[in-house]
Amino acid sequence: MVSSVPRLDNTLEQAKIALVRRQWVQAVRDGDDQRLANLITDDVVAVLKDGRCVTGKEAVHAELRHAFSLYDIERKALSTGIVIQDNWAIELDEMDSTMTPVKDGMEIRAHVKTVIVYGRRRDGEWKVARLMELLD
Fold first, then answer.
1. Which helix or strand (DSSP H or E) is residue 29 part of?
2. pTM (2 decimals)?
3. Which one of 9, 94, 126, 128 has the minimum C-beta count within 10 Å?
């Protein structure tokens, strides 16, 4: 089957994905759930660190909004690796995460491993299609 999405140079595609990642990290820092929602596909699937599976853009957006109502989140990328195959890209990240409660409470620090699957849309734009966070 021939794809209607043009095959492009992987270097260019990696740069596009890196831009999405930077936008994601900045939106997390800013606590901006709407910007994050703009970076995910309508059929996104997220496996949260507590093991719950959330499907669909609206449900994932609601989870993000809820998390930002509870915590200010800071993440520092330690390493990242990406593989691109046609219209899909799989990224493996390791991050140090700090969650500071918006109200009273103890700061939470964690080492997080994340698997992100990006899907390339017909217009060539990459969006987060699958997301899985695993705690050490």
1. helix 10-30
2. 0.85
3. 9
